[in-house]
Amino acid sequence: MTQRAAAELFGTFWLTFGGCGSAVLAAAFPALGIGFAGVALAFGLTVLTMAYAVGPISGGHFNPAVTIGLWAGGRIPAGYVIPYIVAQVVGAVLAAAVLYMIASGKPGFELGGFASNGYGDLSPGKYPLLSCLLMEVVATGFFLLIIMGSTAPGAPGGFAPIAIGLALTLIHLVSIPVTNTSVNPARSTGPALFAGGAYLGQLWLFWLAPIVGAVLGALIARWLGEAAASTDKPQIATT
Question: What b-and-e string marks burial along 111-127, b requiring 16 or more CB atoms within 10 Å of the CB?
Fold first, then answer.
């Protein structure tokens, strides 16, 4: 379990450092042209790269909601849940700390939201609580559906990290204007600890909504998988 937890720590560190770092550091310079599309791609690339690097060790969750969802979907034993979540949160907090040390070295540095998530006045598009709740539940639900489907026994071997990374990129493209995209309680916790204030006060939503969405998505994926196992495979449409 020590190696598994360490893999989750390193993977979540890389996700937070690369994804949030692209927002805090690179996106702060419009001349670089990264924009929020670049931030979305950065998050997808962090998952894709670390899923190949340490996925064979721990499964490559890097996300408490994913861990809980995979447990609900019958993919991992209950004994993995707490060690994985602790490692993921520690990795995210360490990454946020390193990002803070780097970013604060810039002359005239202002902390701002520090890539945190929020609703209402803290939402990038000023979306209300209900909109943000629905976005996080739906996005995380489909994320788990994609994760479980792409890693199912009948899925093409070796391609799951690509599908998962692209899914996370798409999720960010859709949801950055709404919540600044969480779908990951650990990723939300690290930056919020440094942004403080209202961002910490709203952190509950970015634990609750992704976990609810993950469990729902995993249960749907499990149900679909059971149906697929009990019937003949349909022909894939090519029209």
Answer: eebbbbbbbeebbbeeb
Q: How many CA atoms lie within 13 A of 109 on its CB side?
A: 13
Q: What is the pLDDT of residue 238?
A: 45
* The dihedral sign for the CA sequence 203, 116, 110, 98: positive
Q: Kindly report the pTM of this predicted structure.
A: 0.89
Query: What residues contact residue 226 under an 8 Å CB cut-off, 6+ apart?
Result: none
For the cut 60, the answer to whether the pLDDT of residue 217 exceeds it is: yes
Do 206 and 175 form a contact (C-beta atoms < 8 A)?
A: no
Residue 80 tokens, joined: 């993995």
Q: Distance (Å, rounded) from C-alpha 160 to C-alpha 86?
A: 25
For residue range 142-161, what is the model confidence (pLDDT) as tens digits? 999 999 989 888 777 788 89
Over its C-alpha atoms, the chain yields an Rg (Å, rounded) of 18
As a whole number of angstroms, the distance between CA 16 and CA 33 comes to: 21
